[in-house]
Amino acid sequence: MTTAHASHPDHTHQHGEGCGHVAVPHADHVDYAHDGHLHRLHDDHVDECEPAEHATHDDHPHEHGEGCGHVAVPHGDHVDYVHDGHRHATHDGHWDDH
Q1: Distance (Å, whole) CA 21 – CA 55
Q2: Are 24 and 41 in contact (CB under 8 A)?
Q3: What b/e string do you get for 25-49 counting C-beta neighbours within 10 Å, with b at 16 or more?
Q4: Burial class of residue 93 (count of CB atoms within 10 Å of its CB; 0-12, 13-18, 19+)
Q5: What is the pTM of this model?
Q6: Would you state the pLDDT for residue 53?
Q7: H or E segment to which residue 64 belongs
Q8: ∠ CA(24), CA(84), CA(1), 5° rounding?
């Protein structure tokens, strides 16, 4: 899965340990949940870390939801769940990798 490179201009907040935002491991970096989307540090700026395409997570029998044991991360108009090093989001009867 590729991730779109969308710079988040004028982002003055410094994300990192103890910054107050949920840290989400994502592939080779860490995203931070902030203002309904996810930020990642990239070189000398912050990017919005969003998938560039629809990526279905096949064979996922676990049902995420309140009390499922995984970190819930508000993301746009839905909630992602951190599971196995990536985020899952419900979509049309299946789970997507975000």
Answers
A1: 25
A2: no
A3: ebeeebbbbbeebbbbbeeeebbbb
A4: exposed
A5: 0.60
A6: 64
A7: none
A8: 80
